[in-house]
Amino acid sequence: MGNKLYHGAAWYPELWNETVIEQDIELMKQAGMNVVRIGEFAWSNMEPTEGNIDLTFFVRMVNLLHENGIDTVMCTPTPTPPIWFTHGHPERMYVNEQLQVMGHGSRQHACTNHPYFREKAAAITKHIAQAIGRLPGLIGWQIDNEFKAHVSECMCGTCLTQWHDWLEERYETVEKLNEAWGTQIWSEYYHSFEQVPQPGPVPFLHNSSLSTMYQQFSMEKIAQFSDEQAAIIRQFSDAPITHNSSVAFSVDNERLFRELDFASFDTYATYDHPANYLLNNDLWRNFKRGRDYWIMETSPSHAASLASYAKPHPNGYLKVEAVAAYALGAEAFCYWLWRQQRAGCEQPHGSVISTWGKPTVGFPNVLEVEQARKEIEATILATRPTQAEVAMTYSDRSKAFLKTEPHQKLNHRGLVTSFYERILHLGLHRDIVPEGSELAGYKLLFTPFLPYISSDFMERATAFVAEGGVWVVGPLTGGRTEEHTLHTHAALGDLEQLAGVETIYTFPMDGSGSIGSAFDIAAPLSLWSAVFQPKEAIAIGTVEAGLTPGLAFLTERTYGQGKIVMLGSMPTGEKGELLLNKLIMHYADDAGVTLRTDVSAGTIVAPRRGDRYDVWIVVNMDGNGGIVTLPQDGIDPVTGMKYREGKLTLGRYEHKVIQFAGLL
Fold first, then answer.
1. Domain CATH for 543
2. Domain check: are 359 and 409 in the same one?
3. Which residue range(s) make up the domain with 356?
4. How many domains does the chain have?
5. CA–CA separation, 658 and 383 (whole Å)
6. Catalytic annotation on 297?
7. Long-range Cβ contact pairs of 493-498 (< 8 A, separation 24 or more)
8. Which residue out of 47, 146, 368, 654 is catalytically annotated?
9. Which residue of the set 297, 370, 389, 556 is catalytic?
10. Is 146 marked active-site?
11. Residue 662: its pLDDT value, please?
12. Model pLDDT for residues 452-477, shown as the tens digit of each residue
């Protein structure tokens, strides 16, 4: 990629005439756009009839954009197979869990595992890569578009056959599967892999192992499809490859990005939930360590479709979204979409330019983003995000476990975001790290809401603690096996011996009158909980009322140079918030976390490091203004404005770039 920050949008020139195309490019230049994404829904334009592939138009578009100083991210068009692929071929289509066969006319309607789909997808991808892969205007590739955004696990006949193959490869014999899944329950026992069903319609609920493993099978298959497309592109192009994903989709993002070159995400978080937006940045920074991520899609104003619309951003908010993203490690900030669509199901969606070629309500904010990009670009390019000392684990595999077993309609994304928001508001610089991430450089690790902890994760976390780290485990962590069954030797498996506790009971605390006391705060306890008898550990928080008075819900054990902390239950209510905040800061102190800022909630500090100097980019995200304490005098590297040590006030949606003389 170029040595610059990118600011761009998705563009669909195939939908417009030459006059509009010329107008669009001129307007893009006026708005400061330096990159566009094209092609992801254009399969029928590229191959109107089967085998009749013509990419002349898209080659011309990439060249035309390049001539006008605009780079291109080229997409493979596989989310929208043409009518010749779908008409009269229900066997090629996606089938949902109610066994409804999808029809033509939306997107993601094909089964991506069907061999004919794979054949045709490979063919169109190869043609695009050959035609466009070496063009000077091409800077990157996007595979497909938002895998599993509208669909999840396919229940078609092709998937059934591949499911059986996947199971045989995993378990080798059906006897091992029966033993792992406990299939003697409800006479589920199978005599061959071919008898194992998909988790389609049943009178009550499926076996937990069946449901969770089918999700993992589906996640692996979509990642393999991505790998296949990337391998084809690499034969003809050196440009880096990504996919635009999300924490909301039915994918394993860690696995998906493993074979890709850089990570990107789409987000339509509304302005009143900045934590939902910031979490993506703190997570995507860590899928491809050392490589800046992209925001491939966000709205300049509001998201919408024929069925709904979201509230538009207030003036000023888009700019701070962009500044925060660039500061936290993004290389690009891009919109969906450039010109509003005149037809289809997303006509009302926010855009930069209207169908009639005039600026939209979001356009002035896009100009603000461009002005801010130019002002901060030199500083961003000369620095890197500072290594965080606090990390929290994120796991799409846990998302699958909680989809199978949601308790009271819980989901991993919501639970993690809520926990993350507390860390964010306490001024701790933090990473959200995928399950397989290395833990070097961190001092404090939170691992909440991971029903299953792999032996690999356990080894890395144990090594982290032995070398001086503090690991806070739970709640809802460690109580399930890899096959989504219960442990039989201890409630939380091997984790208990490591943490020096014995779990006496596990049960739902909600409505039980359970009160937990720790750090001189008493608060109600909630969620499915574990209560402990300390062995090598000591009790830090004790249950004072309810069904289990006297047992511990919070323990710690010194292990090597560090500590393992078990949080067995979730404090709730106002007192619960106070207790959790106290817990987080107590163990931040314990772990020696120094990378923290005295900043009001709703305002963030994104620390970056240059050559023997530090930069803080301070951003008010909530529109209420904020206050941050500067540890020493600093200067704005663009304007030369000087800032004194002590309190600094920010206005509504204001940001400041502050360079310090040395390392903090």
1. 3.40.50.880
2. no
3. 6-89+110-149+223-382
4. 3
5. 13
6. yes
7. 493/453, 494/455, 494/458, 495/453, 495/458, 498/458, 498/462, 498/559, 498/564
8. 146
9. 297
10. yes
11. 87
12. 999 999 999 999 999 999 999 999 99
